[in-house]
Amino acid sequence: MRLKQYIDEATEQLTKAGVDSPRLCAEVLARETLKGDPSGSARLFCILEAGRELTAIEENDFLALVACRATGQPLAQIIGRKEFYGRDFTVTPHTLIPRPETELIVDNALELLPEEHLSFADLGTGTGCIGITLAAERPCWSGILLDICPNAIAVAAQNAERHSVDGRIAALRADMRTPPLKPESLRLLVSNPPYIADAERHMVMDEVLHNEPHSALFSENNGLLHLKAAVDAAALALQNGGWVLLEHGANQADAVREMLAATGIFKKIENKRDIAQLNRCTLARKGL
Whole-prediction pTM value? Predict the structure, then answer.
């Protein structure tokens, strides 16, 4: 068979499996199998290669990837990467898959803080996508990436090297509830921590629940334990005038505002809406 026939059959298989965007998935997996340029359009690649005959090895590799996707394994885990803020980040089962709504933290941090030397921390970093993107966008910024999972920290370090910011980024294993941060040492603290309450487990998509690390998804105290830890860390480590930016669930915006206000030291507390117009990020300035 030629490539187009393989893609047609894979699309039908993925459609029956209930996979989102089945044809696009089939095209991405075909490009992956045939070593196409990952930065280019998978659809265009497949159109240009539609008449290509696959070798036996290519056929087996493609069918194996399609079978993985049909079982619900996320596409990003199958191909080992996910785009975030225009850059590809290595992804493994030990890290959350970067999501577009998390780019809201990056947008706001870049808008709030100047293009001059400063230090920041990214708590619960996972792939490192937030902190590494900040360092890549601001060559004069340096930061520390913290995660309790040693495998996640290894991925973050790999991504820092991949994007040539490893000289300004330190990836360290640490519990964000007791982070090794010095008082008043930072101008910026960002975090996309675990924030799903255990009682909301039934609301999580099966694909996420069965494939992404629960330690990066769920938090105690109705999903607020790690958010409170991030607030406490910011209160300690930020300099006066420094900013904290936190991602959270859409129904947690008021609770996060209250936690920040309760410290008595954060001002200009503001909820920010994502592209779906949901309150998914809260920011605040320490002191001034």
Answer: 0.94
